[in-house]
Structures are given as C-alpha cells and as structure tokens.
Write the structure tokens for this entry.
Amino acid sequence: SAVISQKPSRDICQRGTSLTIQCQVDSQVTMMFWYRQQPGQSLTLIATANQGSEATYESGFVIDKFPISRPNLTFSTLTVSNLSPEDSSIYLCSVGKGQPTNYGYTFGSGTRLTVV
Amino acid sequence: QKEVEQNSGPLSVPEGAIASLNCTYSDRGSQSFFWYRQYSGKSPELIMFIYSNGDKEDGRFTAQLNKASQYVSLLIRDSQPSDSATYLCAVYGNSKLTFGKGITLSVRP
C-alpha cells in the first residue's frame, strides 16, 4: 500500500487564521480524499481532491472554507480558512489506487488542529 | 442520505472469546465493504474488505457480507488485549467511502 506523509502532525492556531495541511504520497495514486474526525466521532468526508480540476466537495463543506489543491498524482493540500474553535478536529488525508475493491484506502497519520 | 450504522457500544469481551461487530448500510448500490481498526490517537488502518456475499477469512478475522439484508459483520476469534480499539465499518459506493460511527472493543485480560 502507499506510504503517506502528512504535515503538520498537530498545530494550535488563532481564531481567524488559516492552516494548510500537506499530504505527500510515495507513489502515484488515482484517488485522494480529505476527511475530518471530530473528537469521539467517526470520519466525515470533506472532499475528493481531483488532479488538474477543482475538488468535489461533500454536502456541508465549501471551497471558500476548505480550499484544496492537487497539482499532481502524489501531492495535495487542504487549507482550513478563517478558523473558529468549531474547526478543532483531526484532519486526515486518504489515498487509493483506483477501485478500492482491490486495494482499500490508506490513511495518513492525521493533523490534530486546535483553534484558540 | 446514505448511512452506515454500527450497533452501539462499547463492547467488552474476555481474552480468548469471539468478538462480533455488526454494521448495516442503506445504499443497495454499495459495492464493497471495509473494516478499519483505529487505536486511540492513531489513524485508521485497514483490516479487511469484502465485496462478495459470504465469508472471508484472514487469520483471526472473518468478514461476513449479506447484501440481501444489507449487513456486514466482523468476527474476531481468540480476542487479545491488543485488539482493544475502535472498529470502523466503511462502505464504498458512488466513488467514495462512507464510515459508520465505530464501535469500541475492549478485551479484558
């Protein structure tokens, strides 16, 4: 399976600022996703990062708040903008090589964000 | 709204017992089904996936799928304290993976 490097691993940010999270994969992957895991909760898909086009956002998530870039098949960034305490969460990058039937999806180690 | 439901926990079993974790899903078009394990403070790791009706075994783990009943389960045989974690059921459909809320398993020594 792919090896994912996600940075930063944690950060404490001030209200109103932004945080950009990076996801680097050791091989080319078809699918890259960004998830959020709020304390004690399961994973919620934020968006699918599409290479060469705009990300596909899930209901309740918008590009202005969560801009995503994916310049190539091994790298993506998620920015969480205009931070508020409600954004305190763990953000996870996930990747898959084509249909998950054969491979499943692999997760990065996550970014723990605390907004103060 | 496509949903993935896991029975409420936490679940506690004695060491050596069989732990049974259950999951139902609402979208009949779902294609494949996954079980992830998540230790506290860590990211989810894939344990098993299944896409055909029936059982699939991998070591102490058995995944069971019944598409007619929209039901998937995970059995852990000879449970060990190291199996204590949160187990997440995930369903693939419409090009994305949707997760259940997870169930926390505690294996008592």
In short: Chain B is about 0% helix and 60% strand.
